[in-house]
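Fold sample X.
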Amino acid sequence: MILRNAVDLKRVPARPRELAAHPRSALAFAKACNVPQVAAACEKLGIAYHAIGQAAGRVVADPEQEMVKFDLVFSSARGALEALCCGCAVIVCDGRGLAGLVTSRNYETLRVQNFGLRSLNEPVTVERCVEEIGRYDRGDAAVVTDLARRDADLEVALDELEKLYAEVRSGARRPTFSAAEHGRAVTRFLNEHLPRRPGLWPWTAEREGAQSRTQSLQQSIDHLTLADLKRSRLLKLGRMLRRMMGRPTPY
């Protein structure tokens, strides 16, 4: 079972106006705010360009309050999903690549890919950004917004999370394991996660000493050079025996 990203729709304000027939304003959000090709494409088409994100020097606590003011948003991953829920047309891209305009036809595919890295299959160029902006359709964007708001509602996602938690605790998804498996799991947990207090168990000092000596020996072995090997008594004996037998010595 996969629980995907969700958006708190209660935080999304009403849009001050409908999407324009042709995009008049665009916002580069989060990872897309430092992609110069996006700004260049908007300038080329006469679209007012703005950016929000750390790289743009403008970080806001409530980006949904800003996104509802724009016709078009460039973003990726969770930022793209939030922009869709804000009623914007969205072109998925960031510095890693481009996936293109989200439409009612490709929404499901991009949603499964979280509008993220797996979907960014093309390089970001000014020409490709211009091409994707040209696919803008405010009617289809409204359809996509409805899809996203139904699919990514946080209230629904929380219900699913609580249901899954209950199933793991006592329902159909509750794991089954033997007493021996339980014992091994507890032992591993105690060994890996309990704090180490000197003197708590007498054998811990001996164990740590043995581990330290083992590590030291391993480091010594790792740093052996050919000269060290040549000086070893065993190899000296080997050379002597080869000479006595009239065989050549390779070292």
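Fold sample Y, listed below.
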Amino acid sequence: MIIVKWYCKDKKSDIINTGLKILMILLSAAIFSAASSAAFAEPRKEITVSAAMSLKNGFQEIGKVFEAKHGGVKVRFNFGASGDLIRQIEGGAPVSVFASASPREMDELESRGLIISGSRIDFASNSLVVVVPSGSSHRIGSFGDLASDGVRRIAVGNFKTSPVGRYAEEAFQYYKILPSIKGKLIFAENVRQVLDYVARKEADAGIVYATDAKFRINEAKIAAVADKRSHGRIIYSLAKIKNSSDEKLAGEFMDFMLSKEGRNILGKYGFIPMSYK
């Protein structure tokens, strides 16, 4: 140990020495106080919301507004194809809220007992459309036109894991063109990847939701809208997942989603909010 002694030859030195000691005491107290506050501060609350890729823009805005209304809360989003997301949940991914683009995925989770009973609700709907690159010379006025010789590549979602792909397959069967276009299909993992293929002109056409078509209007345009009878109704479902990190906060997020403010945000992005009790 090194001992440092201060030798004060006059009163001025005594004053300086005393001031330094006081300063050191105050500094030590401040450091201790900050350390104590950090140690005993309430941890920041957060929830993870897994949602269909088509909900990305609307949910991101809803998340920001929700965080602003709940100081210290963080909403983490995980977007992807609904089929891939339920595989993650079934594998134990730490998800608090799940929003699917089809009832089928929610049915599967419910049958496995992975959602909180009574928390499931249908909250919005959408439309299925054909998009083509802006400036395209292809004359596509209906789904049936996809079978024409001029259309060589058609981007679609994965039939097994992506609801938009499944709806597209149903529409192809309804219009009786699936056998003739099978060799033209380019499969994507989710609806935004389908849109990317079309926007980059890597596909002559693609099947997406009407809401997604709004985000690349300078690069892709709607050429045709599917008859509602051609596919299952596009319904978005919402539910709390069991073993959530914060079930109360998950419920509050869902309540905000379903509030007038939340529905207005979804409506701004083209979704059709559904009525509910």
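Sample Y note: The radius of gyration is 28 Å.
Also: The first strand starts at residue 45 and ends at 52.
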